[in-house]
Write a structure and sequence with these properties.
alpha+beta; about 40% strand; globular
Length: about 100
């Protein structure tokens, strides 16, 4: 299966416009500075999945969804909330990320 080019620059602009900053981009994942959420690119260039950290408050989740999804639409991106994630450090200095569906 072929993957389209990922519009990381557009995603970075979106996040900066909303007061966030990309702290790290790895493969199909975009980590955000506060770790309340992360974005995952799909095989379709302009489509992303939104995952919230399990420790993120319901109020923060609601506020972010209400701002990021319509702003992304205006920029030609499609963001869909897919679930939550947890991230833990490992002894070998790697991170373990577990995703949970809604």
């Amino acid at each position: 299966m072929e993957t389209s080019l990922r519009p990381l620059g557009t995603v970075m602009q979106l996040l900066e416009q909303l007061g966030h900053k990309v702290s790290y981009a790895y493969d199909d994942l975009v980590f955000v500075n506060d770790n309340d959420f992360l974005l995952q690119f799909s095989n379709t260039a302009a489509a992303l999945s939104l995952f919230f950290n399990k420790s993120c408050s319901k109020q923060s989740v609601d506020q972010l969804e209400q701002s990021i999804i319509p702003t992304a639409d205006n920029m030609g991106l499609s963001i869909v909330t897919k679930g939550t994630y947890s991230m833990t450090g490992q002894d070998d200095e790697n991170l373990r990320i577990e995703f949970f569906s809604n």
